[in-house]
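Throughout our pipeline, every protein is held as a single compact record rather than as scattered files. This encoding replaces a full spatial description with a residue-level series of whole-number codes. The remainder of this section carries one protein's record, kept here as part of the documentation.
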Amino acid sequence: MAKKIRKIALYILFVLVSLLVLFVLGTFIFHKIKSKQELELLKEHGYYNPVFIGEYSLNVAVFGKEDGAHTIVGLAGLGMGEFSVAERQMTACLEEENLVVFVDRAGYGFSDDTNHAMTLSYIVEDYRKALQNAGIDGPYILMPHSIGGAYANYWVSHYPEEIEAIVFVDGSQLSANAFEEEEVREKVSFGDRMLAVLAKLGLSRYVLHEYLYRYPDNYSEEEQYLGDALYLLTMDSVAPISEANLLARNAQEAFSGIVTNEVPKLYICASWGFSSKEDLEEYQKWINRQIEINDLDLPLRQTEFEDEEQLQEILDNFENSRKETIYPYAEKMGNCQVICLAGDHMIYEQKPVECGQLIKEFIDTLK
């Protein structure tokens, strides 16, 4: 009887393993077919341009006017492998008279992955080599979003002659203790490496929208498709995980290493830029729409602020945050204008036209 039970158990196990193998194999084949289709469409739209920099290639997507008045270089936020797609609505007005370049970090989008620790200096040297090897000469107007601002700070502090100006699109609010709640880890864990392997097999397609929300209503289905494709490529990499592990160290090192200089800078303050009732109500309505289109299990936000005391407390908190962090940060950098455009951290998605116009007006002031 025991032998019979063991035999049945082994048979069931064999069937289950076989089904799992078939499932993974089918997923992998489907993933490869879809990836090829996505690659062709991204190539067609100009997003594919790998540039060899030594041990691997980084993708350097180039748009706008060749030999334009300025060369603008977009630097993505943490893990934003689809940054080049998401920012194009904002950069549309900039591409008319300027060259606009998006350099992906290792492991982002079409850029090759690496096991090297993604330290501050390593990332910036990768950027510099990619632009040089792509034949894109400086000086550059850096246009960083979020943690990209830390890399821009390091770049201009060490190579000021390469930088014409910097536009921080809601850059991370750096300070001596920035991201102190984030644990610094030297190595990528085995679990994270296994998740990257599963993503390479195509299993990431099943969980894509758990990690990447749908774009706002002003984006087309094609833009969503292109963005998803680049984000899928990012999910199977370990370099962005290393970057996340070193987030606090890189941010604090960038802040402490700032060399005050006269390179013109614009800091667009979005997530800490609220100064009126209208700002808050507009943003809350926009957030509620994002909750709706992404079918998120989250409570809807308050959209009316009739309690004057509550409203003033909220606005005071934002103002104090700007006074305590943003303005000292701008002063430490030197020659930095702060403009508030209240909204989401991805302000280039929420208000692409307004954000692009602010950048254009700033660039027009450069000699």
